[in-house]
Amino acid sequence: MEYAIGLLLAPSVFAFAHFVGLARDRAFYPTVMIVIAAYYVLFAAIHGSGKVVLLESILASGFTLLAVVGFKNNLWWAAAAIAGHGVFDIFQHLLIENPGVPVWWPGFCSTFDLVFGALIGWGLLRRPINQS
Questions:
Q1: Would you say residue 87 lies in a domain?
Q2: Total number of domains in the chain
Q3: Which structural domain, as residue segments, surrounds residue 79?
Q4: 35-43 long-range CB contacts below 8 Å, 24 or more apart?
């Protein structure tokens, strides 16, 4: 079920962002990436493990850095970071034991991120977002 929700929600968010005009701003997708990266830190904080918060923060900082590079230089970096986070979701449990992560989260988030990242790439190919 979590895969189906991710599969339906990603195009819905993408379409909504385009319909209301959020996607016209080059800051939108990098901001989405920063929020996505923060979730595992949130899950660690909910569980209350300082060590896991630190480890998740280090990983989230890498994705945040890619979002900033995407914002400052080329939005393809933000698209790649979001899709890359989808791959990270699949393997996150092998890197860090974060008991705060809901059982369904990796399936949902990996599906959402991979589809959303692909849609951003498709959108950049069709009509580049304002680069100024």
A1: yes
A2: 1
A3: 2-126
A4: 36/63, 36/82, 36/85, 36/109, 36/113, 37/63, 37/64, 37/67, 37/85, 39/105, 39/109, 40/92, 40/96, 40/98, 40/101, 42/100, 43/98, 43/100, 43/101, 43/102, 43/105
Which candidate, 80, 91, 2, places its Cα nearest to that of 40? 91
Rg of the Cα trace of the chain? 15
Residue 109 burial (CB count, 10 A): 23
Residue 132 within a domain: no
Reported as a single tens digit per residue, the pLDDT across 19-76 is 999 999 999 999 999 999 999 999 999 987 899 999 999 999 999 999 999 999 999 9
Averaged pLDDT score across all residues of the chain: 93
Q: What average pLDDT does range 103-131 have in this prediction?
A: 90
